[in-house]
Amino acid sequence: MRATADVLQEIGMSGHYDVDAVRKEFPAAQRITYLDAGFQTPLARPVKAAIDRFLSEGLETAGPKSVWLDRVEQTREKLARFLGASADEIAFTKNTSESMNIAANALPLRAGDKVLMIHGDHPNNAYAFLNLRRKGVTVAFVPMTEIVNADSLRPYIDASTRAISISQVTFHAGHRFDIESIGALCAEKGLHFIVDVMQAIGVVPIDAKAMRATFIGSGSHKGLLVPQGLGLLYWDKSRAELEPAYLAAASLAEVPADLIARPDRLDPAPSARRFELGNFNLPAIHALGASLDMIEALGVANIQNHCFDLGDHLIARLDTLGVRLVGPRARQHRAPHIYVIALPAAEWLGHFEENNVRVSPERDGIRVSFGMFNTIADVDRLIEVIQRRGVKPSSRAA
What we know:
Largest sheet: 7 strands, mixed
Strand content: 5-15%
Number of helices: 14
Shape: globular
Radius of gyration: 22 Å
Structural class: alpha/beta
């Protein structure tokens, strides 16, 4: 009897949604074996249509500004629902790095305070806080282990610790940290909690309130399907004492109608708009509105489970070849969509490129990252390309 995955592949289903119908919305995925969604997802037709609509309106009417700004707020509301937050807790930024820097500089950190981070996590999360060393803030790095949870961090908390900043999913090997237990630890200890969800959002369900995060930051060009140049920031509005390090008219509670600056009226907006500088990336926000509609139509939990199924198949095929997986194998500790294969990138990347397979070089090998459009056939194609070249003993599982 054929495997269930093979039957589902033949009828164009994943067991969670009609993956063939989704795949048709991503032309690039039909032309190449695209296994690089952790770097950037291909453009989807509905996302392109939203951008085209914006461009056509600008071309034909010089821009219906009030309509565009209304759509910004509609997308803000969609994003808030997606994160389990309220619209006044969402700010639009440029990217994850900007979101992390806004968060780091909004925290009331002083000389002698300490921030805990994970060694080897994304550098741009770390740099946002390392930059505070000029103010005397200490950044301490906790070793990265296969499982990172509250118990991993508790021994490193002391009287000077004020915050923990961490990714939900690591970019380099697909670790999925136990964010909710760490958030509970921060609540217990009175610490600020900052979470980078760039590699999780759009694939892993996110509940901002369950995380107990002070700030959550992300870009939108991976699981959110939007071209580069748009980020987001969630701010727990109960932390009203946290204010931006910079200020513009758009950040104020009372924007002067005559646009004359008044030094006696500098109160920041009561919403996350306090962290915005105005002049939004309008085409990208239009794109995000369309991508959120796509993701919600499928259900992010279904996307997660589809990617888990692909990952299970990948791991089984790698085991058959005797090729090692870098990072966690168990579902509860791994990201559903990011897998690093222990094949030296310097030796293998060109081979994949020659065979029309798109993957990323990573510090410990070749990173395979799935999107909502990938199929079992994509995994099998990857394995066939590996088999074609052959595997050296150093790449085999221990």
